[in-house]
Amino acid sequence: MRETPTVKDFTTATLVVAGPWLRGRQLDARPGVVVGPFGGPESADEATMALVWYFTLGAPEPGDTVQAMLPTELTLLDDTLATMHPDAFRDLARDLRRGWFVGEDGDALRGAVRRAWRERAGLAEADPAGRHTLHRG
Q1: Which single residue of 14, 50, 61, 101 could bond 106 by disulfide (Cβ 3.0 to 4.6 Å)?
Q2: What HEC string does 54-90 produce?
Q3: For 14-19, what is the mean pLDDT?
Q4: pTM of the model
Q5: Are 81 and 114 in contact (CB under 8 A)?
């Protein structure tokens, strides 16, 4: 029997599928990216919800495209920022610059997108632990 997922199962930059909420109704499932634990990185151990940016709905904006979701509402995608479709990544990276998050909520995601861009451009490669190494040439 599978354990119930927790926020720790959905780290920053994890791609997921879930249904965002609009005016008290849950919409059809769509892709999103985890921004981090609800309450920021300092609350990661106690957080019961994860912030998800539904990037296909537009630039990040709390409440509309960035929502706190229960881990049981999220399904992991077998894809990463570095391997997702190039057009989707381009749109995500572009809209990330156009939007906003509360406080420092988006800082780790912005860093992950920059690392994925460098990896896609051949300027860095990921090691098995998920860290990135810059190519020096």
Answers
A1: 101
A2: CHHHCCCCECCCEEEECHHHCEECCCCCCCCCHHHHH
A3: 97
A4: 0.86
A5: no
